[in-house]
Design goal:
Elements: E1 5-9, H1 19-26, H2 28-33, E2 41-45, H3 56-77, E3 86-89, H4 95-110, H5 124-128, E4 137-142, H6 145-149, H7 151-158, E5 166-172, H8 174-180, H9 182-203, E6 206-212, H10 227-233, E7 239-240, H11 244-248, H12 252-264
Parallel strand pairs: 1-2, 2-3, 3-4, 4-5, 5-6, 6-7
Length: 273
Amino acid sequence: LGCDEQMWDAEGKEVDGFVVKKLLTKYPDFFTKTRLGKDIFLTIRVPNPEEEKTEAKVLIETLESIPRSFDAAKLYFNDDIAPIFEVILPMTTSEQGLDRIYNYYHKFVVGKQFYPTMDGDILISDWVGEFKPHNINVIPLVEDKQHMLFSHLLLKAYFSDKDFEYQRIFFARSDPALNYGLLSAVIINKIAHQRIHQLAEEISMDLYPIIGVGSAPFRGNLRPDTVDRVIKEYPSVQTFTLQSAFKYDYPPDVVSKAVNQLCETPRSRPHHM
């Protein structure tokens, strides 16, 4: 259908942790021409331990699977293109939540390779191999009014000790409509997008908003026949989510045309609020 990214949702769902290995094994010709992690992308949505205590260790398991997926891709292609290098943190309310994942991955998932399992023994990296990629990007998914409106401050605090080339931020659209009403959800998003754009100009960094829209009007009204309107509504958005109704309720050629329009329409400045 032309989509270039798939969200792999490990938040409360029993998704396959070996998805990269299985994709490369089942569709080797496709992934030789269209590289995972370069041409198309697999982005994992992880549980938030602060909000979902019973699923907290799924986060750890998911982070540990990223180097294993890297090894699977390297075995096939003999290069260092990471098939997975970004994760989405739902219900983000602070920069500490992002930092915990970013630092846990760097210090514990990858960092353990520089230590032996016991004194005088070989390093873990000599035992089981290197752990790559060395770092991952953590994408905050902000879903409530307060943290959407002040997400620019959250990002600014998160950047204080880091040097990123870019950062993505995911804004909810469906849940705010359920919680605050349709009009409020639209206004909250527009103000948030404007503030993110202003932050990008202030710190000279590329910030790429994602918006989680559904096909129902109340949830965002993104359908193949409304692509023009939704793009005009949110002109600064880099990535629009496509839910199942978009994919399955319309003919493939209609969906492909709409996806192509979303991909080819350049971003512009957000509406001034």
